[in-house]
From TrEMBL:
The chain crosses the membrane at residues 1023-1044. Coiled coil: none annotated. It comes from Corynebacterium pyruviciproducens ATCC BAA-1742. This is Alkaline phosphatase. Binds 1 Mg(2+) ion. Binds 2 Zn(2+) ions.
Length: 1064
C-alpha cells in the first residue's frame, strides 16, 4: 500500500502547536524515544566459528544490552538479594495466586514490585547450536556469570572452562556472601552461584555415588585426584561463603580422595583438604559452623570468614510445604481438592533461612555490603512430578521470602532485590472441569471455584504410570522484577545474562564501564500508588450492574507512575499471544538472541491477569475468552465469557471509544479477523453474545439464537446485531474481514441515532446509504484521502477472517522425533488483502487530527492458528502483528504526535516450546529455527488427538499476560495489573472518565434520537482552541518562530471460542 505524503503545511501546523504548548508551560511529549536497543546481540552472540566449529560466548556477548547495561538507572547498591523461583513461569505464578489468594488477589511479595520486565533464557549446546529449552544449570550460570552455556554446565562455558561468577567477584571486593536454597545445596541453581563443574551431577568426591551425568572417564578431569577443581560439595567448602543453607547433607558424607589446598580459580582461600575424611568433617576442621535444625540456625549469632555457617537440613531436598497431589486421566472431573500441609519436622522455613542470612550478612557499620542468592527450588521439582499442590506450596514459600527481603530493602534503602526464575515449566491452567489429552488435577481456589491444571509435556501414560517420570521444562520467556537502586534496568525485554550485569553494575563490580543514566524511558518507581485487593470489590454476586474499576488492581486512578497526557492512544492486540507464543515466534523469526523489531522494543513491560467472571455466580472463571477480555480493557469492567461490552447482568457498559467520540476524538478499529469478531466488536458495540454478528438470527451461530438472545435484536427492542452497531457507531475508520455478515438483511427500519435504516436492505447497503466509503481492496483503500463521521471508511477485505500468511502446518503424535520442517507462504492469500502494517499506517494517517484519536489494532489469527495447532500460522500472523507495532512506532516518531501505544493480548494459548526428541500427551511439530537449531512446539489441550478434534480444538490457557507500552502514561503498565487496569492507563492518559461515563453516555436504543456524538473532521478543534486559550500570545510567537525556521530549512531540505472445540 502506498503511503500518502504529508503536506508541509500540516506538519508545520502540528509542530507549531506543540511548540506553542511548550512555550506556554504545558508538558507535551513531542515524540517518543527510540528503544534503547533495536536488534539484539546478533553480532556478538556468536556460537560458531566461520568453519562451523563451536565458539564459546564470552560474558556479555549474548546480553541484550551488553556489559554496560540498559542505563535506565546508574544508581549503586550496597547489597543485592537475588530470589529465584525455580521453574516459576507465568502459569505457575497465576495458578498459585488463584489457589492461595484468589484470581483478583495479590501476593504480598511476588506481586509487589513496580520495576518489571521479561527475559529470555535459552542455552547453547556444546556444538554451538542453540537449545531453546534450558535447564537450571545453564540458566543459573547465565545470571551468575553473564555467559551462555550448555544444559548441565555449572559455572563453565561450552568448552568447559570456568567463568568467574558474581559471588566470587563480590567476595574479592570484600563483600559478604550467602547462598540459600530448599534443594540440595549442590543442586544446579545454588551450585552455579559459587562453583564450577562440567556437569551438575558432580555432587561429591566419590564418583560412584554421583548421578549418571557425572560418571565415567569423561568426567575425571573434574575431580581433585585428577587435577580438577573438585566436586561441587568440595568447591562449596573451598569458596567459603559466609552463609550456606539448604539440603544435601548426604553428599557431604562422601570421603575426600585428594589432600591439599582448595582450588577455586578466582578467589584466595585457606582450605586444606585431608583425604579419607568426609567433606563435612573437613568443613568442620576448617572452622565452619554446622547447623542441622531450625533451632540450631536460630541460635547462630555471627557468620564470617573465620566461622562461616553451613546449614544442612535434609539429606536430600528439603520437605515441601504441601503433600503431593498427582493428576489423573480425568482429574478435571473430580471434586476440587484442597492441599494438605505436611510436617516439615525440624527444618527451617525458607523465609526464616533468608531472614537469618540477611541478619548475619548485614553490617550497617561497614562500607562493604553483601550478595545473597535465595532459591525456592521445588516449584520446579514438584512440577516435574506433576504435583499441583507441591507447586503451589513452594510458590507460597517463595512469596513469604520475597516479602521478607522487600521489607529489609525498604528499611535499609540501599539494597537491590531481584526476583525471577530459571525456566518455565509444564503446568497449564485449563478450562475447569473439562477433559483434555493432558493429565489433569483439580483444586478449590481461595475464591471457592474449581481450577483445572494440565501436564501435557510427556505422554499421559508415562505421567500416570512411570514413577521416575519427569515432565519437561518449556522455553517461554520469564517475568523478572526488581526493587531498589538500579531496579529500573530489568524493565523491558532482556536476556538472563543481562541480569548478571544489572547486579554487577549496581554493586560496582567488574572492569567495564556501566552505562550512564540516560534521558530515555525514565520512571520514578517510588511514585507508584499502592495496589488494592480487587477481591474486595470485584466479586459482587448480588449486584445488578458493574462499576468500572471494581476489579482493577490500582482502581480508576491508576498506578500513578506517569501522569502525562497523550493526544492519541493505540491499542495493539495480538490475540492469543502469551509469553510462550511471543518466545516461539522470536525464536523462529529472529533467533533466540534476536529482538523483535516492534514488541521487544516497547519501553515499559508489566503483567496482567485475565480472568472473567461467571454470569451465574459472579465468581471468577479462570480461563477467559476474547470477548470478556476485550470488554475488560475497553470498559474497565469484568464480565462473562462471550459478552461484548455488557456486564454480568447483560447491561451495556460505556466503552473508551464512546467516551473518545463524545470528547470529539476520532476513532479507528482494525483487525485481521471478521470485524464482528470478539475483539473488534468489544471496541465499539454491546452484545449479549459474541456471535450476534448480523440482524438475521437464523444465520448467526446457535449461541446467538433462541429466547435468551431475542432481546439483542432490534425488532425485539434491542441494540441490534454487531454489524448494525458497527455501522451505528460510525467509527471514522473500520477495517477488517467479515463481509458475509454485512450481507444479512435488516429486520427493522427507522431512524436510529440520526441515521436512516431501511428494512429489507442488507447492512452493507444501509451503510452505503448512510455515507460510508466502502472499500474491499488495498488499492481502493489507498485511494481514500479522508475519513470522518460524515464519510467514515468501512473496509471489508474478506468474507470471513483474513487468510493466514503461511500454509497450515500439521503437528503429529510423533512430531518431536520427526524431521524438522520449514514454514512456507500461503499461496491462497489474495494480493488484494492489505498487510496489517499498511492498514494500521493508513488508519493513523486518516485519523490524525487536532483532537486526537483512539485506535485499536488486532492481529487476530495468532489465536486462530493456536486453536488449529498451526505453528506456522502462529508465527506468520505474529510477524505481521509485530510489523504493525513497528509501523506505529515509526509513525509516531515521524509525526511527533504524543501517542500512547499499548501492546498486549486477550489471553494466553496452548502452545509450549518443548525439547526435540521427546513426545508429549498431545501433538508436536519440529521446525527449523533461525539459528539452524530445531524448535519443537507442543499442543496438548484439545479433548482428543484425533485430527478432526485436535486441529481446531486446542484451547486458551489461564496464565497472566505480558503488557507493554510507550509514550505518555506508558510507565503505568509496570508491575502487576489486571486487564481492567489497562482501560484506565488509556483513559487517564486521554482524560476520559470511565467511572462517570454511565451518566454521560446514552446506551439505550436510539430510535428517533439524534446522533449520540458530534461530527469529526480535520479542522481546527477543541484541542487547538484549548491551546489558544491557554497560551495566548505565546502561540503566535511560537508559530511565527517555527514558520521562520521552516522557511530557512526549506530554502537550503477466530475461531476464538471460549471452550474446547472452536466453531468455524
Amino acid at each position: 500500500m502506498k503511503r500518502p505524503m504529508k503536506s508541509l503545511l500540516a506538519a508545520a501546523a502540528s509542530t507549531s502547536l506543540f511548540a506553542a504548548f511548550a512555550v506556554a508551560g504545558v508538558t507535551v511529549a513531542s515524540a517518543q524515544d527510540d528503544s534503547l536497543s533495536q536488534g539484539g546481540p546478533s553480532t556478538t552472540c556468536v556460537t560458531t566459528n566461520p568453519d562451523g566449529s563451536p565458539r564459546a560466548p564470552h560474558p556479555g556477548d549474548c546480553a541484550q544490552f551488553g556489559k554496560a547495561g540498559q542505563g535506565r538507572s546508574d544508581a549503586k547498591a550496597k547489597n543485592v538479594i537475588l530470589l529465584i523461583g525455580d521453574g516459576m513461569g507465568q502459569q505457575e505464578i497465576t495458578l498459585a495466586r488463584n489457589y492461595l489468594h484468589g484470581a483478583g488477589g495479590r501476593f504480598e511479595g511476588i506481586d509487589n514490585f513496580v520495576a518489571t520486565g521479561a527475559y529470555t533464557h535459552h542455552s547453547v549446546n556444546k556444538d554451538g547450536s542453540i537449545n531453546y529449552v534450558t535447564d537450571s544449570a545453564a540458566s543459573a550460570t547465565g545470571w551468575s556469570t553473564g555467559t551462555k552455556t550448555y544444559n548441565g554446565a555449572i559455572g563453565v562455558d561450552i568448552e568447559g572452562k570456568p567463568v568467574e561468577n558474581l559471588m566470587e567477584m563480590a567476595k574479592k571486593a570484600g563483600m559478604r556472601t550467602g547462598n540459600v536454597t530448599t534443594s540440595e545445596i549442590q543442586d544446579a541453581t545454588p551450585a552455579a552461584a559459587a562453583t564450577h563443574s562440567v556437569n551438575r551431577k558432580c555432587y561429591g568426591p566419590d564418583e560412584s555415588q554421583n548421578g549418571e551425568g557425572c560418571k565415567g572417564e569423561a568426567f575425571d578431569p573434574q575431580f581433585r585426584e585428577h587435577g580438577g577443581l573438585g566436586s561441587i560439595s568440595e568447591q562449596i567448602v573451598d569458596f567459603r561463603a559466609d552463609v550456606t543453607l539448604g539440603g544435601g547433607a548426604k553428599s557431604f558424607g562422601q570421603k575426600v580422595k585428594e589432600s591439599g589446598p582448595g582450588r577455586n580459580p578466582f578467589v584466595d582461600n585457606t582450605m586444606q583438604w585431608e583425604a579419607g575424611k568426609t567433606v563435612l568433617e573437613n568443613a568442620k576442621e576448617a572452622g565452619f559452623t554446622i547447623v542441622r535444625t531450625a533451632k540450631e540456625l536460630d541460635a547462630v549469632k555471627e557468620a564470617n570468614q573465620d566461622a562461616p555457617v553451613l546449614g544442612l537440613f535434609n539429606n536430600g531436598n528439603m520437605t515441601t510445604r504441601f503433600a503431593d497431589l498427582r493428576p489423573s486421566e480425568h482429574g478435571s472431573q473430580e471434586a476440587p481438592h484442597e492441599c494438605t500441609t505436611q510436617d516439615t519436622g525440624e527444618e527451617p522455613e525458607l523465609k526464616d533461612m533468608a531472614a537469618k542470612a540477611i541478619e548475619l550478612l548485614d553490617d550497617p557499620s561497614s562500607d562493604k555490603g553483601f550478595y545473597l542468592q535465595v532459591e525456592s527450588a521445588s516449584i520446579d521439582k514438584r512440577n516435574h512430578s506433576a504435583d499441583l499442590c507441591g507447586v503451589i506450596g513452594e510458590t507460597d514459600r517463595l512469596d513469604e521470602t520475597v516479602k521478607a527481603a522487600l521489607d529489609f530493602a525498604k528499611q535499609d534503602g540501599n539494597t537491590l532485590v531481584l526476583l525471577s526464575a530459571d525456566h518455565a515449566h509444564s503446568a497449564q491452567i485449563l478450562y475447569d472441569a473439562t477433559d483434555s489429552v493432558s493429565a489433569t488435577s483439580r483444586v478449590k481456589t481461595a475464591d471457592g471455584v474449581g481450577m483445572t491444571v494440565g501436564w501435557g509435556t510427556l505422554p499421559m501414560d508415562t505421567i500416570l504410570n512411570d514413577p521416575k517420570m519427569s515432565t519437561q521444562h518449556t522455553g517461554s520467556q520469564l517475568r523478572i522484577a526488581a526493587y531498589g537502586p538500579g531496579a529500573e534496568n530489568v524493565i523491558g525485554q532482556t536476556d538472563q545474562t543481562d541480569t548478571f550485569f544489572t547486579m554487577a553494575n549496581a554493586l560496582k563490580l567488574g572492569d567495564w564501564e556501566p552505562a550512564k543514566a540516560n534521558n530515555k524511558n525514565q520512571v520514578d518507581v517510588a511514585k507508584a500508588r499502592p495496589a488494592v485487593n480487587a477481591r474486595d470489590n470485584c466479586y459482587l454476586v448480588t449486584q445488578d450492574s458493574s462499576k468500572a474499576g471494581n476489579c482493577a488492581q490500582f482502581g480508576a486512578e491508576g498506578e500513578g507512575l506517569d501522569d502525562s497526557k497523550a493526544k492519541n492512544v493505540v491499542f495493539m492486540i495480538a490475540d492469543g499471544t502469551g509469553d510462550s507464543e511471543i518466545t516461539s515466534a522470536r525464536d523462529y523469526l529472529v533467533g533466540a538472541s534476536g529482538r523483535l523489531p516492534g514488541v521487544d522494543n516497547m519501553a515499559f513491560t508489566g503483567s496482567a491477569t485475565t480472568y472473567p467472571l461467571e454470569a451465574k455466580t459472579g465468581l471468577p472463571g479462570l480461563v477467559t475468552d476474547s470477548a470478556a477480555s476485550a470488554t475488560a480493557w475497553n470498559a474497565g469492567v469484568k464480565t462473562y465469557n462471550g459478552a461484548i461490552g455488557v456486564d454480568l447482568a447483560g447491561n451495556p457498559v460505556p466503552l473508551l471509544s464512546e467516551l473518545a467520540r463524545k470528547k470529539g476524538m476520532k476513532v479507528g478499529n482494525v483487525t485481521t479477523a471478521e470485524i464482528e469478531d470478539a475483539t473488534p466488536a468489544a471496541f465499539a458495540t454491546h452484545a449479549l453474545n459474541r456471535k450476534c454478528y448480523g440482524p438475521e438470527a437464523d444465520k448467526n451461530k446457535s449461541s446467538c439464537q433462541g429466547e435468551d438472545m431475542s432481546s439483542q435484536y432490534r425488532e425485539n427492542g434491542g441494540l441490534g446485531s454487531i454489524s448494525e452497531q458497527l455501522v451505528d457507531f460510525r467509527a471514522d475508520v473500520t477495517l477488517g474481514g467479515g463481509s458475509k455478515a454485512f450481507d444479512q438483511v435488516v429486520q427493522k427500519g427507522g431512524t436510529w441515532g440520526g441515521q436512516k435504516w431501511e428494512e429489507g436492505k442488507t447492512v452493507l447497503e444501509n451503510a452505503k446509504d448512510q455515507g460510508y466509503q466502502v472499500v474491499t481492496t488495498g488499492d481502493e483503500l489507498d485511494a481514500v484521502t479522508s475519513a470522518n463521521t460524515d464519510k467514515p471508511v468501512l473496509g471489508l477485505f474478506s468474507e470471513g477472517n483474513f487468510p493466514r500468511h503461511n500454509e497450515q502446518s500439521i503437528p503429529e503424535l510423533d512430531g518431536a522425533v520427526a524431521p524438522a520442517v520449514d514454514c512456507v507462504a500461503n499461496p491462497e492469500r489474495p494480493s488484494t488483502i492489505p498487510e496489517l502494517a499498511d492498514l494500521t499506517t493508513k488508519s493513523l494517517d486518516l485519523l490524525k487530527n487536532d483532537n486526537g484519536f483512539l485506535l485499536q489494532v488486532e492481529g487476530a489469527s495468532v489465536d486462530k492458528a493456536g486453536h488449529d495447532a498451526d505453528f506456522c500460522g502462529q508465527v506468520g500472523e505474529f510477524d505481521e502483528f509485530d510489523k504493525a507495532v513497528q509501523a506505529v512506532r515509526e509513525w509516531v516518531k515521524k509525526t511527533g504526535e504524543p501517542t500512547l501505544i499499548i501492546t498486549t493480548a486477550d489471553h494466553a494459548h496452548t502452545s509450549q516450546i518443548t525439547a526435540p526428541g521427546k513426545n508429549t500427551s498431545g501433538r508436536t511439530i519440529k521446525v527449523h529455527g533461525q539459528e539452524g537449531s530445531d524448535i519443537v512446539i507442543n499442543y496438548a489441550t484439545a479433548p482428543s488427538n484425533d485430527e478432526k478434534v485436535a486441529l481446531g480444538g486446542q484451547t486458551h490457557t489461564g496464565t497472566q499476560m505480558r503488557v507493554s507500552a510507550e509514550g505518555p502514561g506508558a510507565a503505568n503498565v509496570l508491575g502487576q495489573l489486571d486487564q481492567t487496569d489497562i482501560a484506565f492507563v488509556a483513559a487517564n492518559a486521554l482524560g476520559l472518565d470511565l467511572v462517570g461515563a454511565p451518566e454521560t453516555i446514552d446506551l439505550t436504543p436510539q430510535w428517533d434520537k439524534d446522533a449520540r456524538f458530534g461530527k469529526t473532521s480535520a479542522g481546527t478543534s477543541s484541542w487547538m482552541h484549548w491551546g489558544l486559550g491557554l497560551a495566548g500570545l505565546a502561540i503566535l510567537v511560537a508559530i511565527g518562530y517555527v514558520a521562520y525556521r521552516s522557511t530557512k530549512r526549506d530554502s537550503g531540505v477466530i475461531a476464538d471460542e471460549p471452550h474446547a472445540l472452536a466453531e468455524s
